[in-house]
Amino acid sequence: QLQLVESGGGLVQSGGSLRLSCAATGFTLDYYAIGWFRQAPGKEREGVSCINNSGSFTDYADSVKGRFLISRDNAKNTVYLQMGSLKPEDTAVYYCARSRNYYCPATWIASMYDSWGRGTQVIVSS
User: Fold this and answer.
1) Cα(68)–Cα(48) distance, rounded to whole angstroms?
2) How far is CA 39 from CA 33, 57, 75, in A?
3) Residue with the larger pLDDT of the pair 70 and 109
4) Which sign does the torsion angle of CA 82, 71, 60, 38 carry?
5) Residue 112, SS3?
6) Whole-number mean pLDDT of the chain?
7) What is the pLDDT at residue 75?
8) Helix H segments across the chain?
9) Predicted confidence (pLDDT) at residue 94 exceeds the cutoff of 90
10) 49-53 long-range contacts, Cβ below 8 Å, gap at least 24?
């Protein structure tokens, strides 16, 4: 059964760090790009980062560039999002999603991703 499971969320102070994990089961991660999205209360879901199937290409939303780092370990079927210099505005539920292709979509359109995890909550206190 195809499944994506996020973990690693929690409560952290402003300026702190967290590492999120996205574990994939039921399919071979090697063939797909994986994206991270987030949704804050009362706001629309937004794209955060994406990594292609081999890890040779990464993309970031302007709001997280220089603070977040996406990586993957295909042998472990897991994608990571290392988040640093966290700000209260980073507070959201974070989701990982499987792209329909091996490459990252040019835009952060949710329909370009066909499978989603249930999310992990990140709260950054000021």
Assistant:
1) 9
2) 20, 24, 29
3) 70
4) negative
5) helix
6) 96
7) 95
8) none
9) yes
10) 49/81, 50/99, 50/104, 50/105, 51/79, 51/104, 52/102, 52/103, 52/104, 53/29, 53/102, 53/103
